[in-house]
Write a structure and sequence with these properties.
With about 425 residues, the protein is mainly α. The protein has helices at about 60-70, 75-80, 80-95, 95-120, 130-135, 145-150, 155-165, 170-190, 200-210, 220, 225-240, 240-260, 270-280, 285-290, 295-310, 310-345, 385-390, 395-415. The chain is elongated and about 115 Å long.
Length: about 425
């Protein structure tokens, strides 16, 4: 008898209906193997990946690439400094200066590259180097290359289009470059810890203000003083007078920009030096009055050339009083607005429209409002009738206004 699997059995065999026994799977033992070993069954495909330790860079190989091919940046590519590699490749080793410096500092470069290889998790916390900054400063710093290296991209663009602020800013940077590197490293550290306070630099403000770019208000735009920046742009630094004055008051301008909350009125605080700067020589057109938010006087001066020059001369003598009065007026206005916000429950950052009352309310009067609880509705109160107004001794004008309002309301209801 032939079975399905091709084997023969005897017809008289009583066990012909029983299946053949199946061999048990091969047993494996893990005795003597490492604890993290894996048992592989016969016929199983296994891919083995062998992890090699990172290969460190050799000082001899770095010099071998630097001597003949260093002008093209091959040693920087070898040390995984790809940014400097491309820079050397397109500038022939930073015009040869960087290549010569690298021959001296090669051991330090190799040591830093090996540190990054051994600790890749700290690759993003590497500090910028003063030596690298000087290599990018000379001679290509005239187009702002060192500012690009220091992540000051807006300064880099400014240097690119002004040839390092006509060479003056480039020369000044030679002396302050170590301070710039430390400031950048500190800023990057604060950015990584999300504790970076925004502040303006006195050195950068001087670079923008002392150079001819200051004639166009570059330092004012940098400090967030957009109005003065536009004024300098149109008048060439106030005919040069404001530009020269700013050389001596730059320290105070930077302090005001960094601490706007120290002034009681914030950014609306007026300063005597700013007012004088606008009054001379353009005060005959009322610019100082516009700055002090005295719009009517500003228009009057613009139309009469400073009240034919007389008012302008008087303002030069009384300017401190004008500034003090303007600050008091703004302070009182902000106080009243804050009280109104508090009464009607508006957040301090919200904007509220200033109302004009006729007849004008006395100084310091607060417009009283009754807050409506949330979820309820308070219907508007009806004005008194014409008869009630006359009975209480009201004037004819008040009675007429009440009657007119009542008739207007009836007409709206009919409509």
């Amino acid at each position: 008898m032939t079975t399905d699997n091709g084997k023969t059995r005897n017809e008289g065999d009583s066990r012909s209906d029983l299946p053949y026994p199946v061999a048990p799977p091969p047993t494996t033992t893990t005795a003597g193997l490492p604890p993290n070993s894996v048992t592989v069954m016969p016929g199983q495909n296994v891919t083995v990946v062998i992890a090699h330790p990172p290969a460190l860079k050799s000082l001899a190989e770095a010099y071998l690439l630097c001597v003949p091919l260093g002008l093209l940046g091959f040693h920087h590519f070898y040390l995984r400094r790809y940014g400097f590699g491309f820079l050397y490749f397109f500038t022939l080793g930073a015009c040869g200066v960087g290549w010569l410096v690298d021959l001296i500092r090669m051991p330090a470069l190799v040591k830093e590259a090996n540190r990054r290889i051994q600790h890749p998790e700290n690759d993003d916390v590497t500090d910028l180097s003063v030596c690298d900054a000087y290599i990018t400063w000379f001679p290509l710093g005239i187009i702002g290359l060192h500012h690009y290296y220091l992540r000051n991209y807006h300064w880099g663009v400014a240097y690119t289009f002004t040839a390092g602020f006509f060479g003056i800013g480039w020369i000044v940077d030679a002396f302050r470059l170590p301070f710039m590197v430390r400031a950048t490293n500190r800023r990057l550290e604060l950015e990584r810890t999300n504790t970076l306070p925004h502040s303006y630099s006195l050195g950068e403000a001087y670079v923008l203000g002392v150079t001819p770019a200051g004639l166009f208000g570059a330092h004012h735009f940098y400090l967030g003083r957009t109005g003065f920046g536009v004024f300098y742009l149109v008048t060439l630094g106030g005919c040069g007078v404001g530009w020269i004055v700013d050389w001596f008051r730059m320290k105070w301008l930077v302090q005001r920009a960094n601490n706007p909350d120290r002034q009681v009125l914030g950014k609306r605080h007026k300063f005597v030096d700013d007012a004088y700067l606008l009054a001379f020589p353009f005060g005959i057109f009322g610019l100082h009055h516009f700055y002090l938010e005295r719009m009517v006087w500003g228009v009057l001066y613009a139309c009469t050339v400073g009240l034919f020059g007389i008012g302008w001369l008087v303002d030069l003598c009384r300017m401190p009083c004008l500034v003090s009065d303007a600050n008091k007026r703004i302070e009182e206005e902000l106080r009243i607005m804050a009280e109104i916000r508090q009464q009607i429950g508006i957040q301090p950052s919200a904007i509220i429209r200033r109302e004009i009352f006729y007849p004008p309310l006395p100084a310091g009067t607060v417009y009283q409002m009754n807050p409506v609880p949330s979820g309820s509705y308070a219907p508007p109160t009806q004005p008194p009738s014409y008869e009630d107004t006359m009975a209480t001794g009201g004037s004819l004008a008040e009675a007429a206004s009440v009657g007119g309002a009542k008739n207007e309301g009836n007409d709206r209801e009919k409509f």
